[in-house]
Specification:
Blueprint (H helix, E strand, L loop, with lengths): L1 H8 L9 H20 L3 H7 E8 L5 E3 H9 L3 E8 L5 E5 L2 E14 L2 E16 L2 E9 L6
Parallel strand pairs: 1-7
Antiparallel strand pairs: 1-2, 3-5, 4-5, 5-6, 6-7
Helix pairs in contact: 1-2, 2-3
């Protein structure tokens, strides 16, 4: 765990990081982000999300960093599950850009109504001077049961 934490928390030096190391760092960071969402951890979400972050859902809704942090702060969703399906995560790295694709299971209560579904997502990360930041997300429609 310390190695993963070091890869995530220490801004990588571009010249020293291999694509494999970058992929591991981004994979760990995305898993950390999903875990933060599950418990409405605003501080961790704030650290990982880029200031100009945008999420587009399968239904066409658009959310910014401020929107997601507000939702977490207000605990609009209480999650029982909010995690990537084991073995579904794939990370592709091109220089200072990485894309994570995975199948996400979501179960809980949103604004008083039960939710329970799976969806595919693609999360785009960009290497910035302070390290990798989550800049853009796109989610599919919830998959049929």
């Amino acid at each position: 765990m310390l190695v993963i934490a070091a890869l995530v928390l220490i801004p990588p030096a571009k010249a020293n990081a291999s694509p494999g190391d970058d992929a591991k760092a981004v994979a760990a960071l995305d898993t950390q982000y999903q875990a933060a969402v599950k418990v409405n951890d605003v501080a961790t979400m704030n650290r990982i999300l880029a200031d100009d972050f945008v999420l587009v859902t399968g239904r066409g809704a658009v959310a910014t960093k401020a929107d997601l942090l507000k939702e977490a702060r207000e605990k609009q969703t209480i999650y029982e599950r909010q995690e990537e399906e084991e073995g579904s995560q794939k990370v592709r790295v091109w220089g200072d850009t990485a894309v994570v694709t995975a199948l996400l299971t979501i179960k809980g209560v949103r604004e008083g109504k039960p939710i329970d579904y799976k969806l595919w997502f693609s999360d785009t990360y960009v290497r910035m001077p302070e390290g990798w930041r989550y800049v853009f997300g796109q989610a599919s429609f919830p998959l049929p049961k």
